[in-house]
Amino acid sequence: MMMTLLDRVVIALIIFSVVVESVSRHVFMESAVGHTALPIKRLHAAPPQQRHQIVIAVKQKNIDHLTNILQDISNPDSINYGKHWTKAEVVQLTENKEGRDVIVEDLEKSGIRVEDETLHGEYIIASGTVERLESYLNCKFHVFDIPDLDLGSEVNHDHVATMEKKRGGGGSEGGRRRKQVIRTEAYSVPAEIHEHVTTILNTVQIAPWWKNKVVERVEAINEDEKRGGEGEATKKRSIRGAAVGTLKPIPQPTLAPSRAPYVSGEVSPPFLKNYYNISVSNISPSEALVSHGVLELGTDYLNPDDLTTFQKRYNLPIQALAGYNDHVSSLACTFYPDCAESNLDVQYIMGVAPGIPTYYHYESSTKINDAFTNFVVEASNMTNPANVYSISWVGYELATTASTRQVFNTEAIKLGVMGT
Question: Read out DSSP for 322-349?
């Protein structure tokens, strides 16, 4: 039976409507930024049957209102200054249970497994095969080779290689450890969930290539030494510090009535208290009304024995950490060569404010997205986060998507309203 022209038109219209319906089911979310400006390589298409984990950031309610509240309670001239909210109050204002339920139902209907979620459904961790996720997100995943972190030039690369081999990690290139990740260059989401989604992590985001300030200074020193000169960085090489047990006693600094800077080159806790008129009462951690913590990244470790040595050296109360999650070891500075940033941060924050409970929080770029996002999400998930967190690390904004910044800002706002 021969088809008439009308028959052909009808069939074409049916096919076109099916295609349009399929495309219209997805709404564009975002594309990758900064990839071409970073030392990364797109290697090949991701294996279709390999499983990949994504994290869906559920769109939380009333964030604009919460931002205004933060500005109000942070304003010394406001009658609400310092009136922080409880975790329960923040959750009541921002929780999007309806959106969370819609997303979970759609994931399960699409054959994507929900593995975990934060306490109040702000972030849903799910996984599926690359093939299934590509269909769900209307995208194409590839394997990218990226820098894991900047190890600097003062690390023991043999130890790092040993650690990597034990963890099954990637190799190094030019002194920098690298890893392979699965990412896409753009993605969309099903129309059914679009209004409830802020972003989906582990898609277009490449974790920022970050480093700490100590590494930057060490690199400057090495450049001076290569040139055989005595540049400014080399003259200030005291940042290299001493290994455990090599600290030598030196006279305590004193200040003249004019408060002229002490010129020996050492900045100790007694010096800081004297110079800034810091009065510290002798309290125990159990009596303290506030707490503080530090965030450390990369291959950095904290040595608790070195902390005790530091406290004894300056006649400080012997005080252990109130808690930590990882990367605390007596092998730091020896087997684990990177310890300068962690030791410096913890020793001085505890030295200036003894008796205040101190928490050590380590993050890597492997669990959700980049380490900074991991941290604020985990901290916001705590019932009672510390009042102050010290972060002595930097990341390259060029490598950060707008959605990553939005997730960080949202959780930072919530923490601020809670008093952090």
Answer: SEESS-B-TTBTTTB---HHHHHHHHHH
